[in-house]
Amino acid sequence: MFDAQPFAEGVLLVVAALLPVVNPLGAAPVFLAMTRHIDSATRAALARKVALNGLVLLLASLFLGNLVLHFFGVSIPVVQLAGGFIVCRLAWKLLGEADIEATAAPASSMDTVDAKAFYPFTLPLTVGPGAISVAITLGANFPSTVQPFVADAISAAAGILIVAAAIYLCYRHAARLGQLLGHNGMTVMLKLSAFILFCIGVQIAWNGARTLLLDVAASSATHAPEQAR
Amino acid sequence: MNADLRHLLEGIFLVIAALLPIVNPLGAAPVFLALTRNVEPTMRRQLAWDVALNCFVLLLASIFIGGFVLEFFGVSVPVVQVAGGLVVCSLAWSLLREGEIAESSSATVASTEAIETRAFYPLTLPLTVGPGSISVAITIGANHPSTVRSFVTAAVSSVVGVLIVCIAIYACYRYSRRLGEMLGRNGTAVVVRLSAFILLCIGVQIVWNGADALLGISRPPYTHGR
Fold first, then answer.
1. Which of A59, B16, B69, B163 is 20 to 30 Å from A28 by CA-CA measure?
2. Which residues, at least 6 apart from B30, have a Cβ–Cβ distance to it below 8 Å?
3. How many angstroms separate the CA atoms of A200 and A84, rounded?
4. Are A34 and A101 in contact (CB under 8 A)?
5. Within an 8 Å CB–CB cutoff, is residue A105 touching chain B?
6. What is the nearest CA distance from A177 to chain B, expressed in angstroms?
7. Measured between CA atoms, how close is B220 to chain A, in angstroms?
């Protein structure tokens, strides 16, 4: 009844597909920089919340993503294009932020941090459009018959759980990285991370745009000979 | 008579089936709620009624005279999609920003007049009846037959269909507060962000649909005013 090997394969597939895109290790410095006015206990709570949000968002994308896209009449390349812009916007804001930092450093209360746990921490930063479209694609490849579907669903859920655990660990211990780097090192790290995040945003937008443009090229290539006749 | 009735029913179903998924009041309700979150409940009810009424007029106008208006200004449907999609994107973009501001500044209770001016833009025009719905409505109108009798049938079925769509809009917006109560404050914030994200995706999709039609060499070039 229960086969260990396909289960392990399914878990590995999901982890291998999602972990490099979610990339909690790369997002940790940004997370740290954005929470630098917060005490460590609140940051730990925030890390848990973001990991939990990420877990729910990824599971929802995996199982309901296709339905939601159908419901709103949106295609995956368009999600990449639009989501890429949102990532760019966050990165752009981060790049400009340090200039204001010296003047305004409000000690964020738990309440405002709570409101921010989903946006921008979970949605564009941790689980961005790249991760969402990968999760939707994984979900689209599920078999339609019941028994293999259940097996696939369980292994995918286990894989996502591992990814969420990785997010929690990286964000939870982000402060250690900060201590290692010192204040100036942190500023450099933040700027570098923000720049890389901006590049990632452009890359995601381009991936979507490329698919859309190739579609046009392909359809005009197949129909051009008919017109010539 | 029997055939007419069947045509009428078919027309009504066609209009509903074409418009309802694109107008999608269920999907727009959280955004409506977010944009009116500083408004008191009675005012929101009034606003839901205004928006539904605006939509009724706008959709019927698009069906019956949309084609003429486009011809008059020399605009084609794909261009409406590109331009309108950008307007939807702009709404979604500012919706993402709005939350950031609302967190810092204290929530101001908007005055009655200020809200009423917003009933058309942005609540009706890009949010509820966007460029997608308008171009579908124009396309429905472009298929009107030429004989008087069938024209009357098509016109009546359009009016009834649009009426049903607008009732759905009213119902969804009217009870959007229940949704908000169910979700709580943080839940609403999450839904608003997700909706803004999806709205941005829809805007890009509409822009792309228009751009695709403009770029596509495969299809015959679009001649406006059909």
1. A59
2. B176, B179, B188, B191, B192, B195
3. 8
4. no
5. no
6. 28
7. 10
Q: Tokens 């829809």 identify what position?
A: B202
The per-residue pLDDT for B126 is: 87
Q: Which pair of tokens denotes residue B221? A: 């070039």
- Provide ipTM, 2 decimals: 0.80
Q: Which residues contact A67 (CB under 8 A, 6 or more apart)?
A: none
> Minimal Cα–Cα distance from B88 to chain A, Å?
12
Q: What are the tokens at B16?
A: 């509903």
User: What would the two tokens of residue A25 be?
Assistant: 């290790």
| Gap between the Cα atoms of B38 and B76, Å rounded | 39
Structure-token pair, residue B153: 């049938």
Chain B CB within 8 Å of residue A132 CB: no
Taking CB atoms and an 8 Å limit, are A123 and B212 in contact across chains? no
Residue of B178, B23, B141 lying closest to B88 (CA atoms): B23
**What would the two tokens of residue B185 be?**
């404050």
Measured between CA atoms, the residue of chain A closest to residue B100 is A116
The pLDDT of residue A229 is: 41
Distance of CA A161 to the CA centre of its chain: 14
| Per-residue H/E/C for chain A | CCCHHHHHHHHHHHHHHHHHHHCHHHHHHHHHHHCCCCCHHHHHHHHHHHHHHHHHHHHHHHHHHHHHHHHHCCCHHHHHHHHHHHHHHHHHHHHHHHHHHCCCCCCCCHHHHHHHHHHHHHHHHHCCHHHHHHHHHHHHCCCCCHHHHHHHHHHHHHHHHHHHHHHHHHHHCHHHHHHHHHHHHHHHHHHHHHHHHHHHHHHHHHHHHHHHHHHHHHHHHHHHHHHHC
Contact at 8 Å (CB) between B82 and B211? yes
pLDDT band at B190 (very low <50, low <70, confident <90, very high): confident
Q: How far is CA A67 from CA A62, A136, B18, in A?
A: 10, 10, 18
The CA distance from A197 to A29, in Å, is 11
* CB contact (8 A) between residue A123 and residue B22: no
Distance between CA atoms of residues A116 and A120, nearest Å: 6
Name which of A67, A76, A216, A223 to mutate to probe chain B: the one with the most chain B Cβ atoms within 10 A of its Cβ: A216
pTM of the model: 0.82
